[in-house]
Amino acid sequence: MGGTHVDCALSWFVHGASPIESETFASPKACHRLDGIVVSDYGLNELRKVEIRGQSYFIKKYHRRGRGLRRYLGRSRARAEWENILLFQSLGIPTPRLVAYGEYGQSGVIVTAALPDVCDLQAYSQHELSSRFVESVIDRLSRYVRTLHHNGFVHNDLKWRNILAKPDGEQVYIIDSPLGRHVPRVLMARRIVKDLACLDKVAKYSLTRTQRLRFYLRYKDRDRLRSEDKQEIMRIQLFFKDRE
Q1: DSSP code of residue 167
Q2: Could you tell me if 65 and 71 are in contact, meaning their C-beta atoms sit under 8 angstroms apart?
Q3: Where does residue 156 rank: exposed (0-12), middle (13-18), buried (19+ CB within 10 A)?
Q4: Do 205 and 160 meet the contact criterion of CB atoms below 8 Å apart?
Q5: Cβ 89 vs Cβ 113: under 8 Å
Q6: Within 13 Å of residue 73, how many CA atoms lie on the same side as its CB?
Q7: Backbone phi, then psi, for 139, in 5-degree steps?
Q8: How confident is the model at residue 104, as a pLDDT?
Q9: Per-residue pLDDT at 43
Q10: In sequence order, what are the beta bridge partners of 141?
Q11: Do 28 and 35 contact (CB within 8 A), yes or no?
């Protein structure tokens, strides 16, 4: 179902796709030829939404490998993103289905299947959140973030807009992780604080103190705070001080 394509690509894979998807997304050129709606264009990458026989897909094209040293060294942002999607799947963390991906020259393309009836938490936060919705999201998201951190992985951009949920909160997905990576254990403490502080930037305005505490306790998988937890919570609250 996957393999290297000869279309001047360093690598191109159709990953676990249907015959229609294999044909539609057979190469980077095939992806570029598809008409769709531009969802975002940040210079480094462009995100388009296309519809094929009633199914929506997102095509993300990276125009270059990344910023700074990443333009020349290490894995590209495109590769980091698809490898992280595969990691999430292996850890049982819900994320959009990866359809096709690859690199060619300085560019990269990632195709994912759109999730029906989802919205990001940032958009949900513009409305009053029901306690049932919040409780359901807290239960799932705390487990997913704990799983990532216990496996030595940090997301590095764990904002509410990068978390999708169904309206009832019964399904939660983590997306958009080109900056995520495994880090040495000696560096994990600060990176964990950053991930949790990213989540709390919106949570402190949208959730109650009790709900925020509930998330932290479930993330820690314990019933009450320890002294070291209180110190970590303080670091979380101060992480973005004077930077917001």
Answers
A1: T
A2: yes
A3: middle
A4: no
A5: no
A6: 2
A7: -60, -45
A8: 85
A9: 76
A10: none
A11: no
Q: Higher pLDDT residue, 32 or 193?
A: 193
**Tokens representing residue 109 in the block:** 């393309």
Return the closest-CA partner of residue 124 out of 183, 85, 169: 169
What residues have CB less than 8 Å from 137, skipping those under 6 apart? 121, 165, 169, 172
Using an 8 Å Cβ cutoff, are 119 and 165 in contact?
A: yes
CB proximity list for 8: less than 8 A, separation 6 or greater: 104, 105
CA dist 194 and 148 (Å) reads: 14
Among 96-100, 104-108, 227-231, which is the least confidently predicted range? Answer: 104-108
State which amino acid sits at residue 98. L
Are 149 and 182 contacting, i.e. CB atoms less than 8 angstroms apart? no
pLDDT computed for residue 66 by the predictor:
56
Residue 68: pLDDT band with limits 50, 70, 90: low
| Torsion, Cα of 142, 143, 144, 145 (10° steps) | 50
| Domains of the chain with CATH codes | 11-113 (3.30.200.20), 119-238 (1.10.510.10)
